[in-house]
Amino acid sequence: MAGSALIGAAMRLTSGIKITDPTSGLRLYNKKLLNEFARHINYEPEPDTIAFLARKGVRICEVQVTMDERKHGISYFTLAKSIGYMLRMSFSILVVQWFRKRGDV
Length: 105
Description:
The chain is an all-alpha fold. It contains 4 helices and no strands.
């Protein structure tokens, strides 16, 4: 949860949007944005791209959903992978996104 809060703070700082759970695996996109993700290899639907798109004027909203606890299997995120992900996303949001260009939409 600390990593999610850090990524959310970085998103708020750079794009002005408040996302309470930026690492959630459930995301919905309209057809135009799905097209953009499909056509541009550097667009992954991750928190850094969401912050970048918000900064470029894409309307982002968060809708509360109820998620059930995992019933089977284990997460592939170990402590080390979670920390690495948090650091990569934070660095990308705070530094890299300023050098990205938005694809033709």
